DNA sequence: CCCTGATTCGC
DNA sequence: GCGAATCAGG
């Protein structure tokens, strides 16, 4: 791998986007090991690791068969990494908490499904021109085979100025129509006029065509003047 | 099995 | 410095 300034910058960018190492590797056409290794050497912030910490060997390693030539080290390093990890997690959690809560606030229990606060990671054959938006993996599901779009959290008042459709005058909590309905929030939650769009959603989506167009936007390389 | 990220260590 | 091999948890 030729680690030019550009590729390193790309790595840093993708890394900061919260993409998985494997995903970064795919986009850079390298292995995840290369990604991790480089990131490690670059001193990039550790990602939330599935591994809690490196087992301490001075105690009971838990039957860790020393397949390696030398026993795995990393007592201090692992501890530090773990600490940094938690620290990072806290920060990330704090950052993502707000949007999540906001979304939750606008999603009543009556909604049949939760809003798709999910950023589909680029699938394997993803074009290089697009890539998923930064979303910490902790709050997203594994990638779906969806078109590369990014969810946009509904604005607090996407249509505050809009008149309330007459079909909602009679019942706010229970839309007139049954079955799936667009759950795009309209108005202020908790206020009398608040309601959900209620139109027929696109199949497989929580929003109607109109609001899906707003909710899902194509991702463009933000470094490219986006 | 698949996935994940971290570490080690030969090169 | 690099990254495959390996580890280890979900």
UniProtKB/TrEMBL annotation:
It holds the Pfam family GcrA. This is GcrA cell cycle regulator. It comes from the Bacteria. Residues 40-77 are annotated as: Disordered.
